[in-house]
Amino acid sequence: MKKKISLFLVLSILVTTVLSGCGAKGKISLFSEGEPGFIIVRSAEASNEEREAANELRQTIADELDVKVTYKPDTVKHEDGQIEIVLGQTNRPHTEEVYKELANENENNGLDYIIRQKGDYIYIMGMTLLSLQDAINYFCDTFLKDTNGKVAYDYKYLYNYKAEGGEFAIAGNKDLSSYRIVTPRYNMSYLVGREVTPLSTQLLYATGCTVPVVMDNEEATDYEIIVDSCNREGIPEAADADSYFIQVSGNKVYLGGGSNEATAMAVRKFTEMAKDGKALAADAKITGSYSEDVKAYENEYTLTLADEFDTIDTDLWKIYDGAFSNGTTQEGDPRRAYFTSSSKNLYVQDGSLYLRTTREPDRYNSVELRSENSVWFKYGFIEISAKICSTKGQLAAFWLLGNAAQDYHSEIDIFESTLDWAKATPLSWVGGAVSGEGSNTYYCGWDGDQKTDSYLHFEGSDLEDVYHTFGVEWTEDYITWLYDGREFLTINTTVDERAVATFNGLQQIILTQYGGINVINAGFPDETTDWDKGYMAVDYLRLYQLPGQELVRR
């Protein structure tokens, strides 16, 4: 399971605790004969992060107490007398009342949380995901270490955070309640995106103010911390690919660089300034070198493989050429399905690699590039920047594949995109084929660690209009799918021996554009097929790895 950084706050900071009604009404027993007498409930509309927090609570109880707890969305009807531990805002009674107690007319106090008992319900609520996790930690430490744990009727624990203070300010503004962190809506690298949450968190600790993260399609305001190449005026230019800048102009801050690596360093350095309490003047300008500053950090992602697609690198890519062995076309269609290396189907234009399908009188042409003869890797963060056009009978895919000669081998599909499958939104799933047993280990429909046969899809109907980044972060414990620099889905790859065996082998890299055959619900071409749209354009491919992660060149 992907591990979260511990967020439990030092209790020496001001805390308000209220206990009422304990004597007359007694206490609620959470356990009966060692077994839990409660269920965990969260909103059916909870975010992936909130679901993960709820699932971690369930897993903590299972691990520490060796008991199983029922975990349900709030669409399930409440049964009178059934104790519910309710996480976050749900449809349960008293939710609004408890939230008002927590917010206390100040919705910007992002580290405050409350644990409140009302009737059959024990509410655990935080102003942010950060404080909700703190509340869960406090609840576990207080009530779940002993299976005889009891909660007093009308129990109330309200945590009020007081900012750490210091001199941190932006253009004289110590109150950052009006500020927002603005990020690119499209095509942000995860190398940059992974630095944004720590920045937001540190600003919260430094000032006590929640500084929300928004995308640059929102209307500009006077108070913004602008990350990377956003849809904003006045963004400075870096001196070169290695340089980064932190620049203040009035009440706005610009964080950028000449490369993804440099921009990520700018965000990190600004986060450290907030932590150290360093104020920035209204005309402050700080510059630096990524290659020099990264030396101060250990266990960093470094670039181990890149293709910028200025040319077609035949040393890296094996380009398939010839008839499909299983390329069945529609009955009555005289054409056969082929892979091709033709320059009509595979070419470089305006700095991007184009993989294009075509229809000819006797054949359908598709394109597939594999690194199987050159590069295999195990673990790391890999992403491409791409545009995907979809039409009937077409499929685009970016995927990783293990060694099929092994008893277990994995397939990690970073995306598969068709017109008929969720309106051309890319699909992510992980397949594990076992010798003699054609089966899938995981699909991408998840609720906690429970597999479902539904599919999750990246949002967006503009895939052919603008470039987006797609990738995965793959470790020995988890796989996280990434879309435009943001985490989309995480699955645990250690749940059983088969999963461990499947997802801990070397993988090759594959780019595919299929046309003419019904692959993964692409459908067969028909009169509606627009062959001009049968392509994928890839601006770059980059693999970043931590020290010790394998890269094998053949």
Describe it.
The structure is a single chain. The chain contains eight helices and 38 strands. 41% of the residues are buried. The longest helix has 18 residues, at 48-65. Strands 19, 20, 21, 24, 25, 28, 29, 30 and 36 form a nine-stranded mixed beta sheet that branches. By secondary structure, it is an alpha+beta fold. The protein is 16% helix and 36% strand. The radius of gyration is 26 Å and the shape is globular.
Continuous helix count: 8
Rg over C-alpha atoms, rounded to the nearest angstrom: 26 Å
* End-to-end C-alpha gap: 32 Å
- Multimeric state of these chains? single chain
β content, as a range? 35-45%
Major sheet, described briefly? 9 strands, mixed
Low-confidence stretches: 1-24, 421-455
Principal-axes shape call: globular
Query: Which structural category fits the helices and strands?
Result: alpha+beta
Helix content: 10-25%
Number of strands: 38
- How confident overall, as mean pLDDT? 84
Question: What attributes does this structure have?
Answer:
alpha+beta, disordered N terminus, 554 residues, single chain, globular, eight-stranded antiparallel β-sheet
Q: What is this structure's SSE topology?
A:
Layout: E1 16-19, H1 22-25, E2 27-29, E3 31-32, E4 35-36, E5 38-42, H2 48-65, E6 70-73, E7 83-87, H3 95-103, E8 113-118, E9 121-126, H4 129-143, E10 150-152, E11 155-159, E12 180-183, H5 190-207, E13 213-215, E14 224-227, E15 243-249, E16 252-257, H6 260-276, E17 285-289, H7 290-293, E18 302-307, E19 318-319, E20 322-323, E21 336-339, E22 346-349, E23 352-356, E24 358-360, E25 363-370, E26 375-378, E27 380-388, E28 394-401, E29 408-418, E30 427-434, E31 445-447, E32 450-452, E33 468-474, E34 478-483, E35 486-492, H8 497-502, E36 508-515, E37 535-545, E38 550-553
Parallel strand pairs: 5-6, 5-7, 7-9, 12-13, 12-14, 14-16, 21-25
Antiparallel strand pairs: 1-11, 2-10, 3-4, 8-9, 8-11, 15-16, 15-17, 18-37, 19-25, 20-21, 22-23, 23-37, 24-25, 25-36, 26-38, 27-33, 27-37, 28-29, 28-36, 29-30, 31-32, 33-34, 34-35
Helix pairs in contact: 2-4, 5-6
